[in-house]
Amino acid sequence: MNDLVVDPRRLELLLELSRLGSMREVSEAMNVTTSTVSQQIAALAREAGTPLIEPDGRRVRLTPAGRRLAGHAVTVLAALEAARRDLDPSAAPAGTVRVAAFASAVRQLLLPVARTLARQQPEVRLQLLEHEPGEALGLLADDEVDLALTYDYNLAPARFGRSLVSQPLGSTRWSLGTPAAPGRERGTALEVFSRYRDHDWIVNSRNTADEEVVRVVASLAGFEPRITHRADSLDLVQDMILAGLGVGLLPAARPTARGVTLRRLQQPDVTLRGFAMTRRGHSAWPPLALVLRLLGDTSPP
Asked: I need a labelling partner for 154 at 20 to 30 A (CA). Which of 4, 20, 100, 210 fits?
């Protein structure tokens, strides 16, 4: 092609001409004038840099180049129609939604959504990638995923760029996981932290949000935490606490292994907040809009 921009309407006229063999019949079928058909085919020939039709008695026929282009037109027009249906907000959702999310969000939010889609909307599928928030947002910015599930803490709020749109997915209170000890420890978060100031601390290895929370609360309590171990898996954090390697943040509602105690944190509370992140202007895509709606129905208030 001499011109990289080809009007799909011209391809449609060429395809009809290949089927009907008469500009008059094409004009009637496409509800345009015969001169319009002739002009548009001539313009397409200039774009292609080669004749596309030749006389055939009182009719016309496509040249070899015209027939090859008409064959491509079938594929191009079908792809454009599929794209139109795919992007039509009123169309039935269909397609694969690529999602990057942290492990607990995959387990608690995305797996229920996947099961609902399998029952009710099998034309919509999820492609799941387990990533911490920074990694997930990077994939979203690079257009390698359509949706990123991320989190922050009330004491370490995240800052999202203006090109992104966030949908809240509820919040969860967190506690301090410690080795089990007789009696109940009461008090504010600062008092709880102070009791463990001489312990080693366990934080996340691929995200700094919980480390920021630990440092903020410890600073308010008047000490600098000795951060020694890093682990992403909450089960591994519990195992490390059981092994006497330190203390670390754990969800307040999460069942704990025998030998691990959750110390309530209040004044200030420690709250994890979940978000569904999309690129601005993309959430109207029907499959993505459906997944966002199901996430809203699934996430805790």
From this structure: 100
Give the residue ranges of DSSP H helices in the chain. 8-20, 23-30, 34-48, 64-87, 103-105, 111-120, 133-141, 189-195, 209-220, 234-242, 286-298
> pLDDT above 90 covers what percent of the chain?
57
Q: Which of 198, 195, 194, 193 is nearest to 174 (CA)?
A: 193
Could you count the other beta carbons within 10 Å of the beta carbon of residue 184?
Answer: 8
What does the alpha-carbon distance between residue 134 and residue 292 come to, in Å, rounded to a whole number? 20
SS3 202: strand
Q: At residue 245, does pLDDT exceed 70?
A: yes
Query: Is the bond into 55 cis (omega within 30 degrees of 0)?
Result: no
The CATH class given to the 95-170+273-298 domain equals alpha beta
Tell me how crowded residue 21 is: count the other CB atoms within 10 A of its CB: 16
| The pLDDT value given to residue 268 | 95
Name the residue type at position 84: R
Q: What digits encode the pLDDT tens for the residues 185-217?
A: 778 999 999 999 999 999 999 889 999 999 999
Assigned CATH topology for domain 8-87? Arc Repressor Mutant, subunit A (1.10.10)
- Read off the amino acid at residue 291: V
Domain boundaries, the chain: 8-87, 95-170+273-298, 172-270
Which tokens is 178 given? 């410690």
Q: What is the pLDDT of residues 155-189, one digit of tens each?
A: 999 988 888 999 999 999 999 999 987 666 778 99
Enter the pTM of the model: 0.70
Question: CB of 273 within 8 A of CB of 154?
Answer: yes
